[in-house]
Each structure stands twice: as structure tokens, then as C-alpha cells.
Write a structure and sequence with these properties.
Layout (H helix, E strand, L loop, with lengths): L3 E2 L2 H23 L4 E7 L3 H16 L3 E7 L5 H13 L5 E4 L9 H5 L13 H8 L8 H14 L6 E5 L6 H10 L3 E5 L6 H6 L3 E4 L17 E4 L3 E4 L8 E4 L4 H5 L4 E2 L6 H20 L11
Parallel strand pairs: 1-11, 2-3, 2-4, 5-6, 5-7, 7-8, 8-11
Antiparallel strand pairs: 9-10
Helix pairs in contact: 1-10, 6-7, 6-10
The structure holds nicotinamide-adenine-dinucleotide.
Length: 300
């Protein structure tokens, strides 16, 4: 039987609509407008596209969007000063520093200077610690989006075998913590894992977050398993015309979809959920800052 396609684009639309309804209520009942500040240092074209689209979607759900575009030569001290100002700003509930930062700036120092309560990327060491000890944390957006899709598809994840391929701080490790929090039996695989195919074949849930185009073939997938493809890889596509490219994930979609029970496509799977979860985290941070109830189903 063909796999169910988990439509992240459609799901992200539902999440954004829920965020927008909550923002409306915060405005009408409490006269509060959630605010998100995005900081970009330098002119990396890919980061510029992300920042623009984050700003547009933030405004579309009715929140306040503030962009700080700083010169590539901005010093670490100047950036830390800006973070301090944003930490103190009452109309800003979420702060996101677009990564990567220029090499002369220490990323860890900057991320850990953000007030953990406003750390909507969930990268602050306090949030990492709170997530791993099962406390109320701000959760990184990409794994949060994956978790929402899995819960939506399966209901309970309790007792399922989950394999996360990739151990990065922004995807693999927090993903594993979230799955553990939902009572999965979790294996983290990485570049040194032996017999990766056999490890993946045991999984009811496979999360691929590697950054290697189509590296997971269908014959690694247990029949009926759910496959969440986090990878975004751009390949040349001369068949589409000179200079054209196409996006593929970390799993070989055709062969995996033939065996899996459910699968996310690339594009249109995890990607759209990431920005939706950033908006969800911002409204959650705003509610927590004001001691108000949080929107349901938008947090871990
Ligand atoms: P990363 O480079 O930080 O980490 C990659 C991980 O893959 C590492 O832990 C490494 O051990 C593991 N790995 C490398 N080669 C391997 C191999 N042969 N076998 C098994 N494991 C291997 O990458 P990241 O930031 O975690 O991102 C992973 C992918 O997800 C990238 O394609 C990235 O573009 C994508 N991504 C997508 C979103 C989204 O919104 N959809 C967000 C973040 C990252």
C-alpha cells in the first residue's frame, strides 16, 4: 500500500491559523501584541531569504516583527549590547539570532546572552538543560515541528522504536529528547554508527537529519514505518533547464515511500513546519511572560 504523505505545508497552515487566533485573543482580551525580533549580521543571501520570510509570516499572524540587520563587521560587543536591549524590551517576547554568525563572533556566547524566556530558537543552554530534564523549555523549532507531525499522525508515540540519524545540537539531539519525552525507545545514529542499515530497519519512526542527499534507501525502512525527512539538499537539475536546481531530502523518496506507512516530502514536509513553530514559540513565550494560558498543542 502506498505511504500516507504527511503534508507539512497544510499542517503548517493550520498551526499558523491557530497562532493567529491566539494572537487575536491576546490583543482583544489583554491588549498585548506578541513581538519577535530577528537579528541578522552580514549579507548571506540564504539567511536574508529566511529572515524576510520569517518577518512576513510574523506579520501575517498579527504579531509585531522587528528586524535588526547589522553590518558584517559588527563587533561581538555591539551584538551583545543589542541582545541586552532586546532582553529588556517589554514589547519583544522572542529573539532569534540568525545563524551562522561571522567567524569573529562567538556563537555560543551570543546565544547564551539571550534571555532564555525569549529564546524562541531553544538553543540557550538553559533551554537545552530544561528539555533534557523534562522541564518546560523553549524547544528548537525543527524538531518541535517533527514531533507535532508525528503526534498528529500517530496519536500516542509511547513504546515506539525511533531512530534519529544525525546528532546535531539543533536537530538530532533535541529531536531525540522530544521522542524520549513521548516515551519512545530512542537510538541516535551518526557518522560513526556501525551497520546503519540494520539500525534503521528496527525503527517504527525514522528521522533523517544528516544533510546528505537521498542517503537513506527504501530497503533500510521497516514496512509501515513513519519516515520524517529533515534534510534539505539542493541538487543541480539540468533536465529542468540551464542553471536550474531541485531540492531533495536525506531519504530517497520514491523507494522509501514504497515501503513506509507514512512519509514527509521535500519540499513541503518539515520545512514549512519550522517557521510555523517559530511563530508558535513566540506566542508561547508571550503567554508565559504574561502569566497567561498557552495555546494548546503548540508546545512539547
Ligand atoms: P549537521 O551537519 O549539523 O549534522 C549532521 C549530522 O549527520 C551529524 O551529527 C553527523 O554525525 C551525521 N552524519 C553525517 N554523515 C553521516 C552518515 N554518513 N551517516 C550517519 N550520520 C551521518 O546538520 P543539521 O544542522 O542537523 O541538519 C541536517 C539536515 O537537516 C541538513 O540537510 C539541513 O539543511 C536540514 N535542516 C532542515 C531544517 C528544516 O527546517 N527542514 C532545519 C534544520 C536543518
Amino acid at each position: 500500500m502506498a505511504a500516507t504523505i504527511i503534508d507539512g505545508k497544510e499542517f503548517a497552515g493550520r498551526v499558523r491559523a491557530q497562532v493567529a487566533r491566539h494572537v487575536d485573543r491576546l490583543k482583544s482580551d489583554h491588549d498585548i501584541t506578541p513581538g519577535l525580533a530577528v537579528v541578522l549580521v552580514g549579507t548571506d543571501p540564504a539567511s536574508d531569504v529566511y529572515v524576510r520570510s520569517k518577518g512576513k509570516m510574523t506579520r501575517e499572524v498579527g504579531m509585531k516583527s522587528v528586524e535588526h540587520r547589522l553590518d558584517a563587521a559588527t563587533s561581538e560587543a555591539e551584538l551583545l549590547n543589542l541582545i541586552e536591549t532586546l532582553n529588556a524590551a517589554h514589547d519583544i517576547h522572542g529573539i532569534l539570532v540568525q545563524l551562522p554568525l561571522p567567524r569573529h563572533i562567538n556563537e555560543d556566547l551570543v546565544i547564551n546572552a539571550i534571555d532564555p524566556a525569549k529564546d524562541v530558537d531553544g538553543f540557550h543552554i538553559s533551554n537545552v538543560g530544561m528539555l533534557s530534564t523534562g522541564q518546560k523549555a523553549m524547544v528548537p523549532c525543527t524538531p518541535l515541528g517533527c514531533l507535532m507531525m508525528l503526534r498528529d499522525h500517530h496519536g500516542s508515540l509511547s513504546g515506539m522504536n525511533a531512530v534519529v540519524i544525525g546528532r546535531s545540537n539543533i536537530v538530532g539531539k533535541p529531536m531525540a529528547q522530544l521522542l524520549l519525552g513521548d516515551s519512545c525507545t530512542v537510538t541516535i545514529a551518526h557518522s560513526r554508527t556501525k551497520d546503519l542499515a540494520d539500525v534503521v530497519r528496527r525503527a517504527d519512526i525514522v528521522i533523517a537529519a544528516v544533510g546528505r542527499p537521498e542517503m537513506v534507501p527504501g530497503d533500510w525502512i521497516k514496512p509501515g514505518a513513519t519516515v520524517i525527512d529533515v534534510g534539505i539538499n539542493r541538487l543541480d537539475a539540468p533536465e529542468r533547464g540551464a542553471g536550474k536546481t531541485r531540492l531533495v531530502g536525506d531519504v530517497d523518496y520514491e523507494s522509501c515511500a514504497a515501503v513506509a506507512g507514512a512519509i514527509t516530502p521535500v519540499p513541503g514536509g518539515v520545512g514549512p513546519m519550522t517557521i510555523a513553530c517559530l511563530l508558535a514559540n513566540t506566542v508561547t513565550a508571550c503567554c508565559r511572560a504574561n502569566g497567561l494560558s498557552e495555546p494548546e498543542g503548540l508546545t512539547a
